[in-house]
Description:
Layout: E1 3-15, E2 19-26, E3 30-36, H1 44-50, E4 57-62, E5 73-80, H2 89-105, H3 113-128, H4 135-147, E6 160-162, E7 167-169, E8 177-178, H5 180-189, H6 204-221, H7 231-237
Helix pairs in contact: 2-7, 3-4, 4-6, 5-6
Amino acid sequence: xxxxxxxxxISKVKYRDNDLIVKCFTEQNGLVSYLIRGAxxxxxxxxxxxxxxxxxQLQIEENFKANQTLQYIKEVKVDFIYRSIHTNVYKSSIxxxxxxxxxxxxxxxxxxxxxxxxxxxxxKWLDYQEDYSNFHLLFLLNLTQYLGFYPxxxxxxxxxxxxxxxxxxxxxxxxxxxxxxxxxxxxxxLGINFDDLKTIKMSSKQRQSFLTMLLLYFELHLGSFKKPKxxxxxxxxxx
Length: 239
């Protein structure tokens, strides 16, 4: 039975000569892989591939079949037209970087409406903003809430934060206890709204240091997590 669904493109790979396998995070079914036949064919087919740019927000019509590895899309159209994410070199670098992380960390093959809405609304926010240099940091920090290891903040006045257990501590307990500048930035970012990000000023060096800490935090809590291949390019773009 055909059903309508909303989807955010997480990754895509070429399959055979003219097809794509596209991984999407969907509103109704979580993470789903689709086989898009003829997406890379010239002329008429090329317009189909345009839909599946990284982090595009789509409306799809599908005949979803549980327990089927690859699903098929009957019809697709854009749900939200980005003004700048795919045309601004800095924002497109953010999109590539975050899509790679999402491709690694999103495993749920079931509905998670709150996570879908988080991705949907934050990407729209990024698309409209002119001051977004710290966006990826807050995006990743808040993402941990949906992945199950958001920092426990009831004792956030403590002088250390332990990356291995996600807790603030009164004394340094191991090599993963963070203090200093990264701790200060973490405390400032906890609970902040995206609209208030502009109040937090960081140098590119501070930004890279905090991002390195965040990625280590992901590694410690997600056994399958690997540092993104796009990290080096991403850091170069924002230097």
